[in-house]
Design a protein that fits this description.
The protein is of the alpha/beta class and 261 residues long. It is built from seven helices and ten strands. The strands form two sheets. Strands 6-7-8-3-9-10 form a six-stranded mixed sheet, with helices on both faces. Helix 6 crosses helix 7.
């Protein structure tokens, strides 16, 4: 697929506000979120812990329905979970008593006669061909996340939502998984929204990086990433984007270490 997203609007968020009630007190989590995401765009959302970025993702997924404002997908209000949105959590959440193939099939909501072929197709897509009969405890962390991604994609969602999916992986496995996600994004043409605390990951993967403020979370900046793919993490332009976003979030504080491997 092209590196440039389609001009057709996929997701529209207007005047979104969200609060939680804790011990009788109202705690604002998100404030005045306004966001448009184009079909096929890859957007990364970065921010500190408690900035509301995961809550924003859960609202888009339809897992949080108590909020003010409007959230629409293809012009229709999001009222709850549906197969047009796939969700990859921080943990793979595979069912340990089911094989990998059956875990992937568990998410299928279409005719049964198509299920086996789709499972096989998605095992291939995420690089798990031959592991359909394995159980989750027989997989590495990266392989488990691949299975979780396959499960989230089996219904061909319009939007793939990813909530820090590689945070628990070692550095080299994380890089491998980032490459897998890039391959899937190019192949499927799915709109992707990735929540991450890793600025390098955001710059490497996304067309656009949104920076959220501390609670209550607002979108304090949006950075278009004008770098061709595959991206060179050591290039001067890449490093400059990373520094720019880091300074946007932390002020003039210097980065604590170099990210490039």
């Amino acid at each position: 697929m092209s590196d440039k997203p389609s001009s057709q609007l996929a997701l529209s968020i207007r005047a979104l506000n969200k609060e939680f009630i804790v011990n009788g007190k109202r705690i604002p989590v998100l404030r005045d979120i306004n966001l448009s995401i184009q079909r096929g765009e890859f957007v990364a959302v970065v921010g500190g812990s408690g900035s509301g970025k995961s809550t924003l993702l859960r609202i888009i997924a339809g897992l949080e329905t108590s909020f003010s404002g409007t959230v629409e997908l293809d012009g229709k209000p999001i009222m709850g979970p549906d197969t047009d949105r796939g969700f990859v959590f921080q943990e793979h959440r595979l069912l340990p008593w089911l094989t990998v193939g059956k875990n992937i099939a568990f998410g299928w909501r279409g005719p049964k006669e198509h299920r086996n072929q789709l499972v096989s197709t998605h095992l291939d897509l995420v690089g798990l061909k031959g592991f359909g009969t394995a159980y989750p405890h027989q997989l590495s962390g990266g392989m488990s996340q691949r299975a979780a991604i396959a499960r989230s994609l089996i219904n061909r969602p319009k939007v793939l939502l990813m909530d820090e999916p590689f945070g628990a992986l070692d550095a080299f496995t994380k890089i491998q998984m980032q490459e897998e996600v890039m391959k899937i994004w190019r192949t499927e043409g799915t709109t992707v929204i990735l929540v991450t605390h890793d600025i390098e990951e955001a710059v490497y993967l996304a067309d656009r990086v949104l920076v959220m403020s501390n609670r209550p979370g607002t979108i304090r900046a949006a950075h278009e990433i004008y770098l061709s793919r595959p991206r060179d993490r050591n290039s001067a332009d890449f490093v400059e984007y990373r520094r720019r976003i880091f300074r946007e979030f932390f002020g003039e504080k210097e980065e604590p270490f170099a990210y490039a491997i």
